[in-house]
């Protein structure tokens, strides 16, 4: 069990993440654990993943194409996006695409180099769950949600951009 | 000029608080150097030779007099009483103390200013023609769109961590004075056959190590689609731009790798999903932003009033200054005055706190309280009555602002170089000064006429040397400072990348090489031909032959 932030609260979470080891091999996964598997592993053998008693979810690497997951989204209990380095911003576009283009409505989780200073942006583009990086405080990370109380752009959380709200309220 | 409402104020204040917290956590060891660096860069803070360098945004070069006074105050209070105007219409402080930077930002916020995204791998300050709104050849005032882009790009949640920095420039006039073809995105205001206003969208220009002139990806984009289209371009870049090598990470490399056709098709595909979405601009939205940029109460004046004409006739030095340092205005009887920051002996673009205060006072007294920063690193008073020019000239002289060299060889665009910048191969400031000294004779300088001279201390090209008619690049040869000269570059509507003339020069030999180049020009020019035109016509060979001729 680990602590994560989900929907604005710190909660206990039992999902395990399947990552390749240094040789590119994937360790075996026990049939009864809830596991988040890489897109490639999912696409290679969906049927066996689904045949297990544990639940299976999928994580995307920054270079992955979310369209490959489009048909499965409605049935997945969770989708995650990995941020190998916080400066790699591709995951923000993936979040928006999953939410806005492919209408994914379930849990969208940010993994990897994730900490307080990134929460606001991640939340705005559609993430609602965050595994805070080891060594970074999780309790203070909650404050990251409201670093900014307004923003100019159309986002997943507030599709109507500020300029439209401004003129309507004149 | 745009004025903040409560929301704009709040966003900037919240950014200041966020940065204060980040700085404190860094100083307390809770953020590592590698974590803090991208965060501080996104707020304009470099760490340089002597101290941090703070770059403050001057959105599209627009500055109110009270803002300039605040910058003067900051220069005095937190720095060494001067600052530096940059080639992207911003201002830099070279000596602030890291722990006090949050206080500087809080002071800036009081006057609707900030350092948001003036550095780092994000969308940078949007730039435009320094004469926007007052230029005689303007098709459409670009400033409402600049402000719309500024707001869209500020803290955009999807695009905070791009592969590399991203620069947008907008031009609304016949002559492109915003270097749009060497920006990541260049937007030109155009009208289609039906008379509808839109943008020509140019993508993938840039200088640096790989100078490339941008290409048109959309020849006519109706203005209402501006933001959805920008979102589409940025999303394609964010997802597919290279991140493995920072020298290959700019959008220009992606466009070249994909070909401009394939890139345009990919953007189009992305855009079809976003088009007509909530970010589509309605007429009322544009009108809201345009309402901040309506003309001041100009007086009905006639051009060339007698007191002005007689002074022109009496005082050749004044006439000379008017010829070089003022520009015609869209309203008769007004001019825009360019205050030269290219006085010999002062690093190009440097401005003292005293000069800032003085210029702010003149903006109030002779104009409507506004100033502009030009990407050529000069300061502009946009609206001065011709009848006041003589007095403004005398005041400008008293502040060392009146060198009559705008657009001439000594109006050098120059990066800070090795005196300040830790990436430099060579110093730029002393060499620029040596050139200015060599060409100090005004008759000679005027005779040479329009010449853009650009100087960068290394291949990052902060001084845009590739697009100088004559460009200088600092290079490192076994730890020594050497200088490469390029000829034939130009900015504007016919942007061209200059060509290197040959082996580089030792520092002491640069002015002489310049002199030989100018001698060839004077010998070869046809009547009325500008330097760049002669270079284009006769090619580089005659210059090479003279510059590299062996003495016997
Ligand atoms: C002193 C601290 C500075 C540092 C460390 C610095 C660093 C850099 C670097 C690394 C690049 C290349 C980025 C790339 O091509 O992706 C660059 C580009 C640029 N810099 Fe600076 N710079 C500094 C100061 C300035 C100043 C003072 C100016 C303006 C006078 C300036 C204007 C520019 C411009 C316009 C470019 C873009 C050139 C292009 O189109 O690629 N920089 N800078
Ligand atoms: S061109 Fe090079 S030397 Fe000049 S400021 Fe840029 S990085 Fe520094």
Automatic annotation (TrEMBL), chain A:
InterPro entries: UCP030820. It holds the Pfam family DUF934. It comes from the Bacteria. This is DUF934 domain-containing protein. The lineage of its organism: Bacteria, Pseudomonadati, Pseudomonadota, Betaproteobacteria, Neisseriales.
UniProtKB/TrEMBL annotation, chain B:
Gene3D superfamilies: Sulfite Reductase Hemoprotein, domain 1 (3.30.413.10), Sulfite Reductase Hemoprotein,Domain 2 (3.90.480.10). InterPro entries: NIR_SIR_4Fe-4S, NiRdtase/SiRdtase_haem-b_fer, Nit/Sulf_reduc_fer-like_dom_sf, NO2/SO3_Rdtase_4Fe4S_dom, NO2/SO3_Rdtase_4Fe4S_sf. Keywords: 4Fe-4S, Heme, Iron, Iron-sulfur, Metal-binding, Oxidoreductase. The keyword Iron applies. Pfam families: NIR_SIR, NIR_SIR_ferr. Residues 119-271, 411-547 form the Nitrite/sulphite reductase 4Fe-4S domain. Residues 53-111, 345-397 form the Nitrite/Sulfite reductase ferredoxin-like domain. One of its GO terms (molecular function) is 4 iron, 4 sulfur cluster binding. The keyword Nucleus does not apply. This is Nitrite/sulfite reductase. It comes from Aquitalea palustris.
